[in-house]
Design goal:
The complex is a heterotrimer of chains A (314), B (513) and C (295). Chain B is an alpha+beta fold. Chain B is 44% helix and 12% strand. Chain C has 2 domains: 52 residues, no CATH class; 220 residues, MetI-like (MetI-like fold, Orthogonal Bundle). The chains are: A mainly alpha (314), B alpha+beta (513), C mainly alpha (295).
């Protein structure tokens, strides 16, 4: 009782002390309350057998029945292999993606030819504008068995053509590459901006100390990029179970032969909903993805906080 | 100084808030349910009709509404405005329209837009009581068995059209090439195979040219005595189940039939001969396009209507090409008009004027003037008629004056006009099919998946992952792939799905008696 | 005056230039294929696939897009307006909020960060959001609906906060001692120091506005309020639908080149952004050039 009163007191005190700061952040708080927290009531769809007459809260409560289509079969349920695929793909995207982006950002920041830097960086942004629909078409044209570019090259080298669309394993690499390629420019900008905001006097001091370029990168740039990397990592981890539907759907299509290596939660749920249309099923799957992501983020954030509270997300 | 900064910050917040307020002020909530119940004394209302597809150009619509308002104000003191789903994300938009209770009085629905599911979930109003009073002409004209076909849980939720369409799956092919290379008339799997092989051997650009080989599944069902339970199958909800029309209560798993395995073997030989690309399952190519541009010798997933379209498009570019069509079910004689719920108009739960909406729909299906206007547009502007009443577009600028509001759900045979440029075999094909067709004994059967939702999802997954590659002949060994498929199907619970379908079919048959 | 480069720098430069050149080529080639494909005859592509140079030249796809030039121009106008207003307003609110979250003396900054971050994890889905926007906020078919949903994202706020971290706290403290208010510190001291961060966040906001078609797709009915991306997306979807469905009753005798149309829409939508990008770019590229400092 006493503690509660004290706490309340604390908040009011804080409010009057930092009135301006509160006002400055108020729009953000209101914005997320209205546009994100209010619609969250929709999570309840996952537990109902929805009908239009009774609406969201009037429809009969069915408990966990909507989750059954994912978890049916217990140990052998489809969800485990889907979860594995989704997590592994996302980890590959996050880790390889960030390493590549950091690498390119550092090189770009160190090179001296301005025009080269500008042009190459602009070009790296181009793939961001090519939709996955087009990427899917191109990939088909490259890896098609009979007339594809890849087999054309193999044939001209006197090798036997490869049936790419009959080999699920190769698609892991193709999909990861497509993702890296598309998002490279975007990530590079983040890291470039982070490098740019590093205090230049640090570099000058290092120069005077006679550190060569490798040392400078190793001991100054990389450590200063760590917070940005941790931040991007934590953000991506929250969505570790949320697959990029377009990427997979446009590249793989409905090719059952490749599902073993390329099916993720989002593509599976999509296919289920096209034949078994129900808002409850989709929401249930989304809830599983969110919950899983939240657990991971809370854990990782906790660990990060232990090591260095400054890097933590919250 | 400090004060002015605070004011600035407040202002920022205020701007934020006023945005929201501004938005609130913009549209006022329409009040009350407009339509009075006596047709004699009616308040003036606006009806909103939701149709699929794209709006014609704005200036065309303005002229169209001018004409339409004359009719509707005279007959029912209402103005009618169309809303268009557009094809971009239509599924989610359609769902949002129904979920949010948008102001729509009449909307298109069909099996392919999940009519039975929406009806079962009460997204539409039951119309049984309203029809005799507000749509007397339709109510009389449509036969009771057709009304049964649109019933869901015993109630009518949608008004079907009066245009029996023959959604008979079949194959479109190049009649000119068939004749050129002296292939036999296509009438079964063998003759089709020979045709493809010969044509591909002689026309090098057609090599590997087939898209969607898995659609051949339908061809093979037609070689048996069975029919699909679900009109949408193999993409419907009664996963992989077929039934003998003479014994409706006992379904059969199609994959378990010897014919299925035979087909898988044949498809493997076709695939090995290079009828289609080894990568065909991932292709983004469209069968219609490849066929029309001369890359494919056949279009598998075809219908008489689609053949008509293809033929008319081809005519513009390659006048010497000729298109032929073979309906699979010619083989086993199971020819039905498409099910009643293939095209309906429904009244959404949020409708403000359901009575008036039905009055308008009644006119659409019983008055040539209404029908012509809403189907073909304004005469003289969007179309012309020849002396014998055929559509003539020769003097119309098709690009600027194109009028097509999807009229599928109010098509009426009596008013439907023939065109000057129709596919030359159109009439004969349709009348032939019509002569052979009988009433689908399963029309009106809707599978309620509630009890086996998880199994249906699992079976669908197995079909995509194991059956489609097998049907396309893209597996290493047919026997092992087949055994895997059967095992996975059992694991997925196909027997449970079958038992449930059987149970519901039995109820359906008994209720019908 | 030039100072001789150390060996390490030389090695680094060689590796760097080679690597970046390779990556650049990989990013450029497909785009050239897009441009070339968009200028090729549709039937040629169906029969022979894509190439780096248009072999059977045709501008049919662009003609299809620009059948109604007024519509495209209007859509450009809407998109530019929405992008500018949305980016400016969003940048202001995001940076202000992020600044508060970065203030060490602000007690609730962690709680609020979590409050913001949490929204990326859980969402209610499309339907409740749609009902909120249309039934309660009455935003359907307004310009506002094109701006509000993309105004800020948790990612951009936290990223901004992260950029602010590199500004030494001492600046804020000394300004406070001088009696400056919190808003003044933010507006007069922090903002000018964060140009590269603002450029980055602004770029991402602008890209989100520029690329969005989904919001228009579900909320906008009036064609004159369509954004560019949605209009292009719609042209494409309609073409795809018309070509593969016999559902339409009037035979659509208009030949629409869908394959090349896909590519042409990508070019039309990307073009202006590429022209605009170099202006923002200087904030990331010019900021740090140690070599130049030396020279």
């Amino acid at each position: 009782m006493k503690a509660k009163a004290k706490k309340k007191d604390g908040f009011l005190h804080e409010l009057s002390k930092n009135k301006t700061l509160f006002l400055m952040i108020l729009p953000v708080l209101v914005y997320f309350f209205v546009f994100s927290y209010l619609p969250m009531v929709g999570v309840y769809y996952a537990f109902t057998n929805f009908n239009f007459k009774d609406g969201l809260f009037g429809s009969p409560f069915v408990g966990l029945k909507n989750f059954e289509f994912l978890f049916r079969g217990g140990k052998d349920a489809i969800i485990w292999s889907l979860t594995k695929n989704t997590v592994l793909y996302n980890l590959a995207f996050i880790l390889i993606g960030n390493v590549l982006q950091i690498l390119v950002a550092i090189i770009l920041s160190e090179l001296t030819s301005k025009i080269f830097k500008k042009v190459s960086q602009s070009i790296m942004f181009l793939p961001y504008f090519i939709s996955y629909v087009i990427i899917g078409v191109f990939i088909y044209n490259i890896f098609n068995y009979e007339v594809g570019l890849a087999n054309g090259m193999l044939k001209s080298l006197g090798k036997t053509p490869v049936d790419f669309y009959g080999k699920p394993e190769v698609w892991k690499y193709i999909i990861v590459s497509a993702n890296l390629w598309k998002n490279l420019g975007y990530g590079v900008v983040i890291y470039l901006a982070a490098i740019t905001s590093i205090d230049k006097s640090v570099y000058e001091a290092a120069d005077i100390d006679g550190a060569n370029i490798w040392k400078r990168i190793r001991y100054i740039t990389l450590p200063l990029l760590k917070p940005t990397f941790v931040l991007l990592l934590l953000f991506s981890l929250g969505g570790i179970l949320k697959g990029q539907f377009d990427l997979f759907y446009q590249i793989v299509g409905r090719n059952g032969n490749l599902y073993a290596a390329t099916d993720i939660i989002d593509t599976y749920v999509y296919r289920t909903l096209t034949i078994n249309f129900d808002v409850g099923l989709g929401t249930a799957a989304g809830l599983y993805q969110s919950f899983f992501g939240m657990m991971i983020v809370l854990t990782v954030n906790f660990i990060v906080k232990k090591i260095d509270p400054d890097y933590a997300l919250f | 100084m400090k004060k002015s900064i605070k004011r600035l910050a407040c202002l920022a917040v205020a701007v934020m808030m006023s945005f929201t307020l501004l938005a609130c002020g913009k549209t006022e909530e329409p009040s009350g349910d407009g339509g009075s119940k006596e047709p004699s004394k009616l308040d003036k209302v606006q009806l909103n009709v939701y149709v699929m597809g794209e709006s014609p150009k704005e200036d065309i619509m303005t002229k169209f509404y001018e004409e339409l308002d004359k009719l509707t104000l005279r007959d029912m003191n209402a103005t009618v405005r169309f809303k268009f789903s557009t094809w971009a994300d239509w599924q989610s938009k359609y769902n949002l329209m129904l979920s949010s209770g948008e102001d729509v009085d009449l909307c298109y629905s069909a099996d392919w837009t999940n009519y039975p599911t929406y009806a079962a979930k009460d997204a539409f109003m039951a119309l049984d009581d309203l029809l005799p009073k507000y749509a007397p002409n339709i109510n009389k004209a449509i036969k009771p068995e057709i009304w049964d076909g649109v019933k869901v849980k015993g109630k009518i939720y949608g008004v079907p059209n009066q245009y029996p369409e023959y959604v008979q799956h079949g194959v479109s092919y190049r009649e000119d090439l068939r004749k050129k290379y002296n292939c036999a008339e296509i009438k079964d799997v063998d003759t089709l195979g020979k045709y493809i092989e010969t044509v591909m051997a002689n026309e090098p650009t057609m090599k590997n040219g087939i898209v969607e080989p898995q659609a051949m599944q339908k061809f093979f069902v037609a070689t048996t005595k069975y029919q699909y339970v679900d009109s949408q199958d193999p993409y419907g909800m009664c996963k992989g189940l077929v039934v003998d029309p003479n014994d409706l209560t006992n379904t059969v798993v199609y994959y378990g039939l010897p014919e299925y395995k035979e087909m898988a073997k044949l498809m493997k030989t076709w695939a090995d001969k290079g009828f289609w690309s080894k990568s065909v399952l991932s292709t983004k190519e469209d069968n219609a396009v490849t066929f029309e541009s001369g890359k494919s010798p056949v279009r598998f997933e075809s219908l008489p209507m689609k053949t008509k379209e293809s033929s008319e498009k081809i005519k513009l570019k390659h006048p010497d090409w000729e298109v032929g069509y073979f309906a699979y079910n010619e083989m086993n004689g199971i020819i039905y008009p498409c099910r009643a719920n293939h095209n309906v108009m429904a009244v959404p739960r949020g409708a403000k004027n359901p009575e008036r909406a039905l009055m308008f729909l009644d006119k659409l299906q019983s008055d040539q003037e209404y029908f012509d206007l809403c189907t073909y547009g304004v005469k003289g502007l969007n179309y012309n008629l020849t002396d014998d009443g055929k559509l003539d577009y020769s003097k119309i600028d098709r690009e600027k004056c194109n009028f097509d509001i999807a009229p599928w759900a109010w098509r009426t045979e009596e008013f439907f006009r023939k065109g000057v440029d129709d596919w030359n075999k159109w009439e004969s094909t349709v009348s032939e099919l019509k002569g052979k067709s009988k009433q689908d004994p399963l029309d009106g059967f809707v599978f309620d998946t509630a009890n086996v939702q998880a199994e249906v999802a699992a079976v669908a997954q197995v079909e995509e992952q194991y059956a489609r590659p097998l049907e396309s002949g893209l597996v290493g060994n047919v026997d092992t792939a087949y055994d895997t498929l059967m095992k996975k199907l059992r694991d997925a619970g196909i027997d449970k799905v079958k038992a449930e379908v059987d149970k519901q079919l039995k109820e359906f048959v008994e209720n019908k008696k | 005056m030039k100072i001789k480069q150390p060996v390490a720098t030389k090695v680094f430069n060689i590796i760097g230039y080679v690597l970046i050149t390779i990556i650049t080529i990989f990013c450029l080639l497909p785009f050239i294929m897009v441009v070339s494909g968009s200028l090729t005859n549709e039937e040629y592509i169906i029969m022979h696939g894509y190439s780096l140079w248009p072999k059977d030249f045709s501008t049919q796809a662009y003609k299809t897009i620009f059948t109604y030039p007024k519509q495209i121009l209007t859509a450009y106008g809407v998109t530019i307006m929405v992008t500018i207003i949305g980016t400016a307003l969003g940048l202001f609110l995001i940076s202000m909020g992020a600044y508060v979250l970065n203030r060490k003396d602000f007690k609730y900054r962690n709680g609020m960060s979590f409050y913001i971050y949490f929204t990326t994890l859980f969402g209610g889905g499309l339907i409740p959001w749609y009902i909120l926007m249309t039934k309660y906020l009455h935003l359907k078919d307004t310009y506002l609906v094109l701006i509000l949903p993309l105004l800020m994202t948790p990612f951009l706020i936290i990223l901004m906060r992260n950029f602010f971290k590199s500004i030494p706290d001492s600046i804020v403290e000394s300004a406070k001692i001088d009696g400056a208010g919190d808003f003044t510190i933010y507006a007069k001291l922090i903002m000018p120091l964060s140009k590269s961060a603002l450029a980055t966040i602004g770029l991402f906001l602008a890209l989100a506005y520029w690329n969005d078609w989904f919001i228009s797709s579900i909320y906008i009915d009036t064609p004159s309020k369509y954004t560019l991306q949605y209009l292009l997306y719609k042209i494409l979807q309609d073409a795809e639908f018309l070509k593969s469905n016999a559902a339409s009753n009037v035979t659509s005798s208009i030949q629409i080149p869908t394959e090349t149309l896909k590519l042409a829409t990508a070019v039309v939508a990307t073009g202006p952004v590429i022209l605009f990008y170099p202006f923002v770019q200087k904030y990331f590229v010019d900021g740090l050039i140690v070599g130049a400092v030396k020279g």
